[in-house]
Structure formats: structure tokens, C-alpha cells
Amino acid sequence: MIPVKLEIQGLYSYKEPQTVHFNQLTGAGLFGIFGAVGSGKSSILEGILLALYGSTERLSDRGEKGSMLNLQSNQLVINFEFLGGKNNQQTFLARYAAKRNSKDPEKVDPAEHTFYERIQGEWIPIESEPERLVGKKKEHFKQTVIIPQGKFREFIDLTPGPRAEMMKELFGLERFDLSGKTAVLFRKVKDEKIRIDTQLQNLEGFQEELLEEKNSQLQQIQTQLKEASAQVDFLSKQVKEREKLQEKFSEWKKFGERKQELIQQKPEIEEKRQLHKEFILAKTYLRPIWNQLKETKADSEKFQVSMNESEGFKKTFKETIDQLIQEEQELKVKNQQRPERESKVRDLKKVIELKSLHQNLADAKQKIQSLEPSIQSLKSEQSALEKNQEELEAQAAQHTNPDTNLLSELKTSLQSWKDLEEQEATLTEILTNFQKEEKQVLRKLEDLQHKIPANFPTPEAWLDNQRKTIRQIEDSREQLMKNLGLNAHAHLLQDGQPCPLCGSKEHPNPLESEKQELQLREKEQELKSAKEESEKILLIIQQRKEEQLHLENHQNNIKVRSSEIAQVRQKLETLKSSLEKHAIQTISELKSRIEGLAASNQAREKLLIHLQESRKKWQDNRAKLEKAQQEFQQAQIKHEGLQASILTKKEEIKDPTFCKPFFEKEETDIRQMIAKVERDIENAALEYEGKQKRIQEVREKQAKNEADFLNFQNLWKASLSKIEKLETEYKEAKKQHGFENEEELIRLYEHSLDAEKVAKQIQQFDQQMALVESRILELEQIKELKNFKEEEFLQLNAELQLKKSEEEEIQQTLTLLREEIKTISVKIQEKKKLELEHAKLEKRAAYLKELEGLFKGSGFVKYVSSIYLKELCHTANQRFMKLSKNSLSLEIDENNTFWVVDYLNGGKRRLLKTLSGGQTFQASLCLALALAEKVKALNQADQSFFFLDEGFGALDITSLRVVFETLKSLRHENRIVGIISHVEELQQEIGAFAQIVLDPEKGSQVSYSF
């Protein structure tokens, strides 16, 4: 995560909106945020935490928002823009906003906490948790990225359990928590083993002997099946020959029965044939004329009704047109008065404008009268302020201007004097301790040298000799163990019988087991003593190397401290020499000179502030006077313009006599009257136009009605002629086709006979009768047909079916036996496969059980976590030993507890909590940098960000300089470090910084060094 920009308003002391531009600050690699105590420096980190996680370090996010909100602000708004994601390639915006309750200002409404991502230049809202965007929980974020006040050493103070849990979450070590997975695998293997055992129990009866027995049965049944198939084939041929004759006999009987059915249907068919003939004649020659005559009579009646209706409409149309013409004349007269009425409406609108101008004229006159006293008062106040300003300028001219550069130089010299004296005392004390410890180390080395035998020049030679002795003892012990192995066969030796090992028949000196075992125990005791002696030698060598390393470190430290003391004394003498030109010999004289210059400077600054305030009041009063005079002038101009406008409007009125009464009425009444007249004028025009259109429409309908009457009259006469002609034609057709009875003919018209269907039935009857008679004659030509007996055929067929049943039973038995043989073969193969798989599972279960014991209780996670912590210590020591001048280093024990190796005290270990405040800060800084470096590598980021908010006040100048050299070197590692502090000396070490100043009126204000 790399910060880009922070916008903050309403949080603690940030009353007005302020923006922290991190781009230019982070570009320097190392930057600072400085300001006095209480100026709002730490609130920047609080704002970042609030924007990302919805809560701060000081206050939680439940019920305490009212305390976060500035007492003079109504809302809290924080917008934090930052880079995140893989390699910090995505841009995100975290927004946190809260407002005071409108009804109860002491309460704060629920906050709005949202996240956005910049995609193609636009902020798109996203639903995401801050842990996913930043990659850390809030607690870990405060320990590795942004470290607020009071939290810097939290990682050190954690107990081993929470520290291991933090390492697990930061570095994803849960992937090494394999106990659950191992247990699942073990259960699966166990279940699979039970399943295979169950299957093997079910397959216990499947043996190779059973398979051989079933194959023998198969050969016997195959022979039986062959004999049964031969008998079935012989009977099938005889049955097929009889089946053909039986089919012909059945067909002859069926056609005879069908002929009798057709003879019975013949009278009905002949009746349908006669009806069909008459129906076709009537439908073809008489029905079309009868339908046409019926339709023509209906049309004649319809035309006569339409003629009567048109005759009645003539009178109605005439009365309607006369009424519409009368209404049109009335509207025409009303529209001719429109110009006169519109002129009166325009005069009334001017009356409204004149009433408004008179009101504005009265307001302008009243404003002129109110401004005159205010202008006189401001002029008097301006004169008094000018007089006071002249007096203050005269007093300021009498004060001499103090030398601020000299004051700053003397303050710096005083601080340097104090620092150099403290450094000299501290370094002298450290040098004395180093010299004492050097003597102790030399005494320890002498004691260790006395423990080495005189016949060995070095302890290494002593160790080589001891190792040779151990190898000789081990060779002897191995030979004794071989003899004991042969002794296990010694009781089998008999005289005259060959030895199973060498083949000899004589055994003059067999091994004695008791003697061999005694010698073996003596050798093992001798080997144990030799190894203990070897470990003792190794311990002496290790102690000797450690003491030599301690001696070398102490000698280097003595040399470095002596050089540093000389440098400090030289700097102090140089400082004293530089102060002699100001006639200062002692530190008390330096303090007195600084106090005098500061008092003189303070008095002059106070007078200048009074003068500045007086000038500001004069400028403010002058601005008020100019503004009042300008308003007075504008009011006069407006008054004159309104008088001219009133005269012009009065001249524009056409009928003053008509308008005079309306000047006394309300404006709303006048406007209502104007609207009423305008609506009446518009409605009269629309109604006149509508009447004209209506008259035209009615006249068009009248003309159409006349034309319709003539048309219907002609059609009615034509229909009468057509009816007479059709009746004559219909009578002649009936006579021609022999239909005399009209009622029977009409019933024939209305008959629901389907002529096509009846004709088809008659045709089918004729065809079937011809076919049946022809087929019967053909079948009676077969000679053996009449001698066929159904009983003999059925008996032969029954015998065939019996033989087929026997064949099928044999075939079914054969099929079942083959399936059984196949099943037995498959089961035997399956059994072999399961036995092989069972052996594999037995082996895998043993391995998994051993792994389950290793992974139990997150043992593997703790082991990996300890490796990460050791790597963390190794990385941190690269900086911590440099900061502590090689006097201290960090270690982690098997319980994941931090220890300090103190090389000034013989390399002994002590708890990390025993360090001083400054040393604890150095250790915390080194661990935090190492942790951030590991997290950076884990997140695959080119850059990483780290923010400190404490600790620098606990360091002396030398340690502070070393720390800053370390922090500056991080720029070469593509790391960004931000520092928050009130220590003024830090500004000289850091080029890019933001300055926070608490303004009494505006709240915290942000400025920059660039």
C-alpha cells in the first residue's frame, strides 16, 4: 500500500478541509510530518486508519464518533487515495463520512464507509473488505505499516502465542497447518480399508476350484442343446408346409362370410343410390335459381327500408343548418370588438407595472435615508484609527531591531554544548565498562588454556586425538557384536557335524556368550566415557572461540569509544573558541546572553503585532466606508431612474379614464380581470371558427343523404324486375326435371346428405362384391383345400412348441452358467486387485498415522513460524548490531520468545524487555523494518511504505544520526519511510516534510517544505 492523497475535515483539530499530498513526500523516500505537541500530526495516521478500517487507535467505531468530530464542525469527511493490489498497480479511494444529528447536535449519525476503484479515469464503487484491499487486518497494519503512538513496540511485547498467530496470518502459514488434512486423509484411508475388507469378505467363496467345476458342467449342457436343436429343425419344416395350406383354408372361409354380409347390405345400398340421384339433380339445376330468387327478395326489402330512412333525414338536416347560421352571426359580432378589448388589457398591464415602480421608488428613498447616518459614523471612526496608527509607528521606530540570526546561532551552540558534555560523560562510562570486561575475558581465556593438556599444542589437536580413540573403541565393539551374532548358532554345533558357517566338522573352541557380553558392556562404557570427553573438548573449543570473539569485540569497542571521546572533546573546544568572539567564556554567560536577546525580540514582536492589528482595523473600516458610499450612490441613481420610468409608463396608457379606478385595486384583482378578458377573447375566436366548420360538415351530410335516396330508389326498382324474371325461370326448371311437389323439393334442398360420401360408399360396395366373388372362385381350384383338418395341424404345432420349450430351457441354463462362469472369473480378478490395494492401504495408513502425530496441535505451523521469526531476527540484526555498535544482537528461542545477546557482558542472554527506552526503540525499528521487508516480498510489490509516530525523543544525537543513516539507506531498497515527531532537530536531517500548525481560528493547517 502506497499513500497518494489524504483529504481530512472535521477530525479532532482539523476544522477546515486540509489535503496531505503524499506524492511529493513519498518521492523523496524519507519524509517527515512535524509540528508542536497537539498540532494534529498523529491525527493524520488516525484519519488513514479511520478511512481504511472505520475506527481509530484512540477511539473505537461504536458510540465514540462524537468525540472524534471537531466541536465546531458539523461533519467529518475523510478521503484517502492509495495504491494497492499486486505490485501496487491499482488505485483505490477509501471514504469515511459522518454528520451531527440535526435534532440533537450532541449525537452523530451513523457513518458512511465506502470504497472506490479508479477504472479508466472514473471512480467505480466496489464492495470489498479493507483486509482484501490492503492485505492485512487492522491490528497487523498497525504493527507493520502505520505504527501509531504507543504501538511501536507492540510486536516485541506480544506473547509467543499471539506472535505466532500474527506470523501465520501475515505470511499465510495456515497452508502448513496439515493436521486437519492429514486427519481427513487418514479417515479416508481407514474408511477405504474397511470398505475393501467388507468386499474381500463378500468374495471369500470365489476360488479357482469352483471355476473349473463350472466349466465341466458347461460342456455337458452344450451337448444336450445340440441334440434338442436337431429335433426342433425337423418338426419346423413339417409345420411350415401345413401352415401354408391352413392360411388358404382360413382365407376361403373368411371370403365366404364376407359375401353373406354384402348380400344383406344390398337393399340399403340401392335405396341410397336412388336418393343420391334425386339430390344431385335438385342441387345442380334447381337450387342455384331458388337461392338467387331468395337473395333478390331480401335485397328489395332492404332497399325500401333505406329509402324511408333517407326521406326522414331531409327535415332534420334543414333545421340543424338554420340554428347553426344564427349562432355564427352572434359570434361574428363579438369577434369584431376584439381590438378594442385587447387595447384595454394592455392599459391594465401598464397599470400593474406603474404600481410596482411606485413601490420600488419608495424603497429606494428609504434606503437613501438609512445610509446617510452610517456613512458619517464610519468617517469619524476612520479618523480615530489613523491617529492611533501614527502613534504606534512612532513607538516602533524607537525600538532597535535585534539580531535574530545571532539568537538562533547562540541557541544552537547552547544545545550543542549540552549534547557534547553528555556524550563525553556517556562515552567515558561505556569505555570504562569495556575495559573492565576486557580484563574479565582475558582471565577466562587463561582459565580455558590451563584445561588443555600440555602435550597438545591446540585444543583442535586434542579433539582429533580423542576422535581417533573413539573410532578404535567403536571398531572393537563392532567385532564383539559380530561374535555375539555367531554365538546364536553355537548351540547347534555337534562333533562330526559340519559348521553351517565355515563347514568344519571339528569345533575345538566354541564361543562363550557370557564372556563376550561382558567385554561388550565394558567397550560400550568405555565408548560412552570417550564421547563425553569429546563433548567436553568441543565445549572448551566453543567457549574459547566465543571468548576470543568477545575479546576482539571489546578491543574494537575500546578503540572506537576512545576515538569518539577524542572527537567529542575536540568539537567542544572548537565550540568554545567560536563563542569567544561574542565575549562568552562559560555556559552560564551563554544562557544569559540568549535570555536578553529573546526578551528584546519579544517586546518588538509584541509592538509590531499591535501595529499590524491597527492597520487591519483601518483597512477594514475603510472598506466598509467605501462600500456604504457606493451603496448610497447606487440608491440615488436607482431613485432617479424609477421617476423617469413612471412618467414614461403613464404616457403609454391609451385610456386614462378607464384605468384610473384600477390604481386603487389590488394587483391580484387586476391580473384576474386581465386573464378573464383574454380567455373570453380567445374562446370567441375559437367558437366562431368551430361554428363555420360545423355548418360545412352538416351541409355535406345533407347532400350525401339526397344522393343516397336516389340510389336506393333505383336499386329497389331493379330488384323487382329481377324477381319476376327468376320466378318464371324456376317454374320451367321444375317442370323439365319432373319435380311437381314444392314441399318435397324444399325438403330435398334442406337435406344434410353428404353426396360425395354416399357416392363413395356405393362405389366401395360394388368393388368389394366383385372382389369377394372372384377370390372365392380362385381358392376353390386348390385340390387339398376341402380335405384340410384343423385338429391334425394343431397337434403337430403343439409337438413343435414342446420341443422348442425344451430347447429354450437348455439354452437358458447354458446362458446362466456362462454368466456365472464370467462372474466367478471377474470376482477372482477383483479379489486379487482388492488384496493388492489392501496391502497398499495398510502401508499408507501407517505413514499417515506417523504424520498425524507430527502435525498434531499445529506443531508444523509453530515450527515454520519459528523459522520465519529466526529469519526476521537475522534480517533485523544486520541493522540492530550496527545501531548498537556491535554490542547487542537479537535471538529467538524454541518458545518464540525474543532475547538479547549482550556482547558487553560476555555474550550472555537477557530478555528484550530489559533494554532501555532508546535501545528498545532501535530493536523495534529493526524488527519492524525486517517485518515490512518480508511482507513486501510476500505481496510482490516494487515499493513498500512504513510510517513511524514515536521514539525519536528517546535517542541521543549520535544514535539519532545512525538511525537516520539507516532510514536514508532504505531509499536504495525502494522503501518509503514517513516520520512523525515534534523534535525540531529532525527537520535538519529530512529534506521533504509537511509542517502542521494549530491555528486558533482555522484549526490544524498543513504546509510543506517545498
Summarize the structure.
Helix content is 70%, strand content 9%. It is an alpha/beta fold.
What is the typical, i.e. mean, pLDDT?
80
Rg on CA atoms, Å = 62 Å
Structural class: alpha/beta
Q: Largest sheet at a glance?
A: 6 strands, antiparallel
| Shape descriptor | flat
Query: pLDDT under 50 segments (min length 5)?
Result: none
What labels describe this entry?
single chain, 1010 residues, alpha/beta, Rossmann fold, six-stranded antiparallel beta sheet, six-stranded mixed beta sheet, 23 helices, 15 strands, flat
Written overview of the protein:
With 1010 residues, the chain is α/β, with parallel strands linked by helices. Among the domains are: 2-147 and 979-1008, 3-Layer(aba) Sandwich (Rossmann fold), CATH 3.40.50.300; 361-413 and 462-493 and 512-654, no CATH class. It contains 23 helices and 15 strands. The chain has helices at residues 22-27, 42-53, 65-68, 130-134, 138-144, 154-157, 160-170, 179-202, 208-336, 338-398, 404-450, 459-487, 513-579, 587-652, 656-659, 667-737, 742-750, 755-779, 790-855, 859-883, 917-939, 957-969, 986-989; strands at 2-9, 18-21, 30-35, 75-84, 90-99, 112-119, 122-126, 146-147, 888-892, 898-902, 908-911, 944-948, 975-981, 992-999, 1003-1008. The strands form 3 sheets. A 6-stranded antiparallel sheet has the order 2-1-4-5-6-7. Strands 8-12-13-3-14-15 form a 6-stranded mixed sheet, sandwiched between helices. Strands 9-10-11 form a 3-stranded antiparallel sheet. α22 links the parallel β12 (944-948) and β13 (975-981). α10 (338-398) crosses α16 and α11 packs antiparallel against α13 (513-579). The chain is flat. It starts with a strand and ends with a strand.
